[in-house]
Amino acid sequence: xxxxxxxxxxxxxxxxxxxxxxxxxxxxxxxxxxxxxxxxxxxxxxxxxxxxxxxxxxxxxxxxxxxxxxxxxxxxxxxxxxxxxxxxx
Length: 89
What we know:
It is a single chain. This protein is an alpha+beta fold. The chain has helices at 2-14, 81-86; strands spanning 21-32, 43-52, 55-64, 67-80. The mean pLDDT is 96.
């Protein structure tokens, strides 16, 4: 569920970033309100709530159909993709 919410946030801003940029997660906090059943389709949404320079804050939610499974907040940072990737290897 958390990975889906984080991915939703990443995708929510991907088309608005400067060329050569991406976002990386900095913090995620969520409540898990209801369980999903094995085989249920789970989706996630992300809404930008604040932008402060390279810092983007989101409200994130996960659903199974119309049932809210979890919700919380997520923080991402805008980084230069090539520079960030060079630090990993």
